[in-house]
Amino acid sequence: MNTPETVTSRYFYPQGNPRYRLIALWYFAFLITLWTVLGHAVLGFEQSYAAPIVGVASACFAQFILEFADSRSQRRTPRYAGGFANLINFLLPAWIPGLAVAMLIYPNENLGPIAFAAGLSIASKVIFRAPVGNFTQHVFNPSNFGITATIVLFPWIGIAPPYHFTENVVGIWDWVIPGIILFSGIFLHAVFTKRLPLCLAWIGGFLAQAAIRCTVYDIPWQVPLVPMTSAAFILFTLYMIPDPATTPLNPYRQVLFGLSVAAVYGMLQVNHFVFGLFIALFLVCLLRFVGLYWMALANRKPGVLDTVQA
């Protein structure tokens, strides 16, 4: 039986093993929950305590409503049915974007934009889908889509400053905390998602675009490399770009994906766009979205046979 989980695992996780997907989801969920708690209690996150609650509640509500409507329209059993364990596993893909948007968006005292970004993150998984094999799969990183759309539609909203990830720590902890993020991310992608080629390609591409900008515009070499010194850059590199459900499993395509994000980021910086990291990832996902449809048409596939929601 082709459940959404097994189909997603087949195309986006090593050996098509659903266990890798479930382990990766729990790993992501645990780390981002721990990071949120420590951030508000110790590290110096500047959003209100209500922000993560609103983000998670909005994302989970959207996930539940969309699944309820889809299961009713297709006359099938909802994925959240079958016990408490099924319910928790069903909500994990919503829990992660809910905390991510609450962590990365800074709307001052307003909670509405966080609810909007979290709900849109989940809705994007249903609205924007492309053919993968005989199925369809969402192609935009949910958190990144919600954040990008929110900062474009509400230009008075900012992104959480990179310094707040280590604002209240000093001394060796300025190195230990980014080191923990780095090690945990490398372990996750080396063992469960196999997305290290993508991460390395993104870093290599980032260095290359920095070198090109330094040469062409005669600027100090340190300037375009400053973003790499923050914990926020590590989070983006290891927990935003290499989303398994929205990136290729093939290592060569991973490299192309990572280099493309870096190239688009460099062009955005040259043209003075703010929030370049988020917009670059969105644009590359958009190009991949168009490319998947183009390949499906070029191969003359008769149509998509089913849909998948991760």
Describe this protein with a few key phrases.
310 residues, mainly alpha, Ammonium transporter fold, two-stranded antiparallel ribbon, globular, transmembrane helix
Multimeric state: single chain
Overall pLDDT, averaged? Answer: 86
User: What is the terminal-to-terminal distance?
Assistant: 16 Å
Uncertain ranges: 301-309
Largest sheet: 2 strands, antiparallel
Please state the structural category: mainly alpha
Biggest β-sheet: strands ordered side by side in the sheet: 1-4
Number of strands: 4
Total of domains? 1
CATH architectural category? Orthogonal Bundle
Summary, kept brief:
This protein is mainly alpha-helical and 310 residues long. 66% of the residues lie in helices and 4% in strands.
Describe the protein's architecture and organization.
This protein is mostly helical and 310 residues long. It has a single domain, classed as Ammonium transporter fold (Orthogonal Bundle). The chain has helices at 4-12, 18-43, 50-74, 84-104, 112-127, 142-153, 173-193, 196-217, 231-240, 251-270, 276-298, and strands spanning 105-106, 129-132, 135-138, 158-159.
How is the secondary structure organized here?
Layout: H1 4-12, H2 18-43, H3 50-74, H4 84-104, E1 105-106, H5 112-127, E2 129-132, E3 135-138, H6 142-153, E4 158-159, H7 173-193, H8 196-217, H9 231-240, H10 251-270, H11 276-298
Helix pairs in contact: 1-2, 2-4, 3-4, 3-5, 4-5, 4-6, 5-6, 6-11, 7-9, 8-10, 10-11
